[in-house]
Structures are given as structure tokens and as C-alpha cells.
Amino acid sequence: MKLEMPPFQQATVLVVGDVMLDRYWHGKATRISPEAPVPVVKVNGNDDRPGGAANVALNIAALGAAASLAGITGRDEAGEELGRRLAAAGVLCHFQASASAPTITKLRVTSQHQQLLRVDFEEPFADDDVVKLQQQAIAAMPASQVLILSDYGKGTLGGKGTSGQTRALIQAARDRGMPVVVDPKGHDFSKYRGATVITPNLSEFEAVAGPCHNEEELVSKGQALRESLELTALLITRGEHGMTLLQAARPVLHLPAQAREVFDVTGAGDTVVSVLAAALAAGQSLETGTALANLAAGLVVAKLGTASISGPELRRAIQLQEGTGRGVMTAEQLATVVADARAQGEKIVFTNGCFDIIHAGHVGYLEEARRQGDRLIVAINDDDSVKRLKGSGRPINPVERRMAVLAGLSAVDWVVSFPEDTPEALLQVLRPDVLVKGGDYSVDTVVGGDFVQGYGGEVRVLAFLDNCSTSAIVEKMKQS
Question: What is the CATH number of the domain that holds 388?
Fold first, then answer.
């Protein structure tokens, strides 16, 4: 399955579920309390992060999609902080402020990356709050393309006396033609009947469907559950065994896990449901959305704590997987991958020339240029430009061949052509960190050098290897 970055900027997703604030207190634990056999932590830092359904919305916004969020908070400082952080990320919040319950808050005390204590602040929500939230969520549906139900079992999606709330939301969305993606909780999945897809992990699935001792049993029980709940699809996330997507009248899709390193699985389920829903909203199929979610999950488990995957991170992972992270590109494609590389903190080096006949001087020069940073762009004059600069007999090799040879060099990351006599227009778009030129130049005479230095970039001049030049090679060929 070939993956491409979906147009997430065209997607709008509504998240409804249990919102919470993940609060962290950090400090050193250097002694044991005289009052009890517990460590004493001297707090020297704190961190507040949106959690639960709020983290799902944050993930969607990080992808570049439009996210709105409906949930219940308390009338307290934690609720205000949650709202501020989500608004700063561009999430549109539809909060029902409860007069009887606090904002769900999980306070973790940590020392040297080790969690020592967790304190939970939560109380059951009043039925009236749940009903009012349902009304807010339904009113927000026309502005979105996909609905996510993020169920953490805290009561937002229905508790005692409100068991029909989840089904009402699903029905309201399906009446509007909206796909419904559910991150389920608990042992009763019947409340999710009629959803488009639910995404239980393996333990959640087996708690409902029964133990599965092999792939055949997993598929059989999964299809039976999917049919009984009238789901379009069932996506089972299986940790180190990847994911399994089950649909009616379609082949089972097994995807291997993508993670190379696993530091923390916290929030991986949020990432899966976020990417899947955003992909559906961007017009992708369930199969493609699942593959993208699987790739994103492999990225997020390599991070510590609850984390989001940004659009540039996902696009970069797609490029690496599809082998499109290097090579010949258009100026527009190059601008995108350069932005992604810069988002990863990589230093961009730029050089340019005709590169008509690649020789040892070019190879040595490009290897030295690559050592000036993390990524090397080689921009070459197109055929008409070379002819204007070098005369009617040039180029010897057309631009496509010159670009193909350069792209095959290990030192070169990206190759792009330009029609002008100088690369100044490209420099204005790409804004490299380092502009490199080879030959008998001084820093002051490098074309585009003033512009690059003007925004804080560097200009460096490197030497070609002795006795190597394209013009000399051409002249020798003529003589022979």
C-alpha cells in the first residue's frame, strides 16, 4: 500500500469524550520522610498537559486538521488551564461547566523520570450535565466531517441513567452521513452499536470477545463482534504485533508494528484514533487511514509521556517508508521536505551549478559541502540556462540525466533544477542555513550571499579538487 500525506488542512473533526488535565510535578527525592516510609520530593518544576479526549483533539490539531472538542469540566482553575492550552493549539472547545464535579485531573509526582505517586481528582457527573453536553455536541456536528467518541469511562459518554447518550450521538452523526470513530472503554461495547469503526486494544477486545489463541480465532471473533454491533469496521490494536483491520466482504488487513524503540505507550491509543479520523475526514479510505495510524503509533511510543505527532513528523515518516525522502524534486516538493527537516532541527546546506559532466572534483566538493550541515540541496541550471551561460554546445548531458546522476550520490539529499541564470529565486523560498559555492570565489562574490547573510545564514567557499573541471574535460574530448 503506497502512502501519501493526506490533505489534513481540509479535514475537520469533532471529538466528544472525557476531557482531563494531566498535571506533573517534578523534583528530586533525596531523603525519606521521618513521618512515614515515603520519599520526600522537593518540587522544582511542573507541567500541565491536556489529557483524555483533550489529547485526542490536540493530536488532530498537531496534524494540521481543524479540531473541535466537547466535554465536561468543572468550574475551577484546572478547567480554565485546560481551556487555555487547547485554545493556544487552535482547538475549538464546547465545554459544559459542571457545578457539582471538578475537572478530571491526574496529578503525577515524578523524580528522575520515575513516577512516585498519582493523585486523581474526579467525581461523577450529574445526568443533567451529560444531557446538556450531548445537545452541545449535536449542535456542533454540522461544522465537522468526522465524529470521534473518546471514552475513558469517566461518565461523559453516559453513566448510570444515561446509557443511551452514546447511541444518540452515533445516530445523530450517522443521520448526517458522518463517520463515527470510537475509542472504546469497558466490557460493554453494545453502546457503540452502529459506529463506523471502533479501535479497542487487544486486552479490551478479548475482555469482550474472549481470549484469542491464534490469528484465525482473532479474526473469527472479531468479525462476529463487528457484525453483532453493526460496525463498518473493527480495528484491533495489538502492541508489538501491530494492527488488524476487519471489514465486511474485504480482505483482513494485518499491519506489523512500526516502532523501532518503545519508551512509553501512554497516549498511543489517542494517536491511533486521531490519525484515523483525520485521514477519513481528509477523504482517505479505512485501509489507508489505518496504515497512517499504525505509522504514527510507531512514532509516538518512542516519545516519553503523553505526546502528539505533528504533520511534518508524519510526512517525514511517510517519505522514509516510501523511499521519497531523497532524490529529484520540484521546487514545491522541496519546500515541503525542507520545512519538515527544519522542524526536526536539521541544518540545510545549499549549493548550485551546471554539473554538466560529473567528475571527481564534483564528488569531492559535494561530500565536503554535505559535511557543512545535515541535509544537502543541489540546485542545477536547466538546459536553456546552461546554454546561455556556457554557449550553444552545452550542456553535454540534458537536465534529467544530470539530476539523476547527482541524486545517486550518497552526499546529496535533494536535487532541483531552476530556469533562471542564478538560483536567487530558490534561495528566497528555501532560505538555507548554509550557502556553499566551489571554485575561485570569495564570500562577497557568491550570488545570493547577501540575501542568505541578511537573515542570519552562512556563506562558505570550498575548493574543487585540483585539475578537475568540466570545461577541461570537454576540451580534451575535442582534441582526442
Answer: 3.40.50.620
Close Cβ partners of 347 (under 8 Å, ≥ 6 residues apart): 372, 373, 374, 375, 433, 434
Query: Which sequence positions are flagged as catalytic?
Result: 270
d(CA 112, CA 27): 8
Q: Is residue 2 a part of any domain in this protein?
A: no
Listing DSSP states for 190-216 in one string gives: GGGTT-SEE--BHHHHHHHH----SHH
Q: What are the tens digits of pLDDT across the range 213-247?
A: 998 999 999 999 999 999 999 999 988 888 999 99
Q: Name, in order, each residue with C-beta under 8 angstroms of 273's C-beta and a sequence gap of 6 or more.
A: 56, 148, 150, 181, 182, 183, 199, 293
Domain assignment present for 331: yes
- The alpha carbons of the chain give a radius of gyration, in whole angstroms, of 28
Query: Hunting for cell 452515533 — which residue is that?
Result: 170
Judged by DSSP in three states, 163 sits in coil
Residues 123 and 105 in one domain: yes
Q: Indicate whether 263 and 246 sit together in one domain.
A: yes
- Work out the pLDDT band at 479, boundaries 50, 70, 90: low
The DSSP line for 223-264 is HHHHHHTT-SEEEEE-GGG-EEEEETTS--EEE----S--S-
For the segment 280-337, what is each residue's pLDDT rounded down to a tens digit?
A: 999 999 999 999 999 898 888 766 556 678 888 888 888 777 665 678 888 888 888 8
Which pLDDT value is given to residue 468? 54
Using one digit for the tens of pLDDT, what is the confidence trace for 43-93? 999 999 999 999 999 999 999 999 999 999 999 999 999 999 999 999 999
278 domain residue, yes or no: yes
298 burial class (0-12, 13-18, 19+ CB within 10 angstroms)? buried
Percentage of the chain beyond pLDDT 70 is 91
Q: Which of 322, 351, 384 is the last residue before a domain boundary?
A: 322
Question: From CA 309, how far away is CA 311, in angstroms rounded?
Answer: 7
Q: What is the dihedral of CA 156, 162, 164, 168, to 10 degrees?
A: -50
Same domain, 66 and 213: yes
Q: Which of 292, 322, 352 is the last residue of a domain?
A: 322
- Tell me, yes or no, whether 412 and 309 share the same domain: no
DSSP letter at 76?
S
Band (258; pLDDT cuts 50, 70, 90): low
**How many domains are contained in the chain?**
2
Are residues 331 and 316 part of one domain? no
172 and 288 in a single domain? The answer is: yes
Indicate the pLDDT class of residue 4, thresholds 50, 70 and 90: confident
Q: Residue 466: which domain range?
A: 327-479
Q: Which residues of 89-117 are buried (b: 16+ CB within 10 A; e: fewer)?
A: bebbbbbbebeebbbbbbbbbbbeeeeee
Q: Is 3 a member of any domain?
A: no
pTM flag (> 0.85): no
